[in-house]
DNA sequence: TAGATTGTTAATCGATTAACAATC
DNA sequence: TAGATTGTTAATCGATTAACAATC
């Protein structure tokens, strides 16, 4: 990526948040915003906003602030929402079904083109218009279609095997919904959604407040 | 909470991870482990493990390491997996359905006792044996049952209203699946699951590797 | 006892915040 | 021009890592 030097994960994880807030400002028909105003809305410091944005370039103007539309476009470009990713879902259970039905992903550039499962009762069916195929056909499918991301919503006991299978056929991005950590090659990018971890942290925080 | 002084969020968010690894070690019938061995398994430094654990007390023994079972019990107690939380799901869509069917939550102390929705076609039905009630009856329900946590899987445009409703009836814990940030009272604990943020970060990281 | 490993203090590193000169 | 606000450097803060005395 020609996106300059090394951007810290802390900054990267804030990008979608900037994107959301700018999207809202656009919809509110607000034309310009200063780092101070945005900091009040987002509950972070103006300093941090200016530091974060300057990782990618000087998008503002002294004495004026930032043009909302052009900043939104810049953040969109940085996040690559114009680029498209081809995705498959592995595991047609409840979570897989929820993901397949989630319309926002397509808007953000993520196209779900197929679902895979081992259950003969599910294979051949569709979810939200997307075909469910047998796991046995995954390799052939990936040979014929470029697949960027596998969304893994399989049972915990099969996650390691499935993750190895999808990476062995060349998929580089894994969206992992199992609690297990995946140890895969250096070239594979894994994003974890650890639901029970999140819930346990909520429980801890509630108890530490005395509830 | 009598859990000593101030524990940083960074440490708290690592607790479920320790919990998982210790659970696995127990199942592997491993009796003792040193911070060095655990650090290799978890891919973090032994120093960090010792620092983290010492936020809560000295669970180890010089020259020996940590007893897996007793450390597991300590972490369980800290995370409060023995304590029970009463939860409701608001929004019986695909994500709500997925959560209602997720059996692990109960094992971790989170009991889902009711689901609420506005759709007359869904009200009166059940998901995984849990009744779906009308949103109009939420207030009465919470008056009759102590509810600790509301899991919010409602459409984005209604999230603010729903979050205000559940907090106004005294629910202190919110598990928020909408992309919106909730601005609620100081006494309310919110954990966010921002799925599209996570996916966008995955996309960013893939592109920054040149895929 | 000798070896191993913790608990804990000190050093380092990185991220956040403050400050301000540059400039629109 | 005067006022406002950025871009950027410096200061602070917090988290991670290293080191080692204590001790099992």
Automatic annotation (TrEMBL), chains A, B:
Binding site for NAD(+): 91-96
SUPFAM superfamilies referenced in this protein's UniProt entry, alphabetically: NAD(P)-binding Rossmann-fold domains, Winged helix' DNA-binding domain
The keyword Transcription regulation is assigned to this record: yes
Keyword flag Ribonucleoprotein: no
Record GO cellular component, one term: cytoplasm
GO biological process: negative regulation of DNA-templated transcription; response to redox state
One GO MF term: DNA-binding transcription factor activity
Major site of localization recorded for this protein: cytoplasm
Ranges for domain CoA-binding: 80-181
Source organism, top-level taxon: Bacteria
Gene3D superfamilies reported for this sequence: NAD(P)-binding Rossmann-like Domain, Winged helix-like DNA-binding domain superfamily/Winged helix DNA-binding domain
SMART domains: CoA_binding (SM00881)
Compartments in which it is found: Cytoplasm
Keywords: Cytoplasm, DNA-binding, NAD, Repressor, Transcription, Transcription regulation
Residue ranges of the annotated DNA-binding region, renumbered to this chain: 17-56
Oligomeric and partner information: Homodimer.
Family classification: Belongs to the transcriptional regulatory Rex family.
Xref: NCBIfam families: PRK05472.1-3 (NF003989), PRK05472.1-4 (NF003990), PRK05472.2-2 (NF003993), PRK05472.2-3 (NF003994), PRK05472.2-4 (NF003995), PRK05472.2-5 (NF003996)
Biological function: Modulates transcription in response to changes in cellular NADH/NAD(+) redox state.
Protein name: Redox-sensing transcriptional repressor Rex
Gene that produces this protein: rex
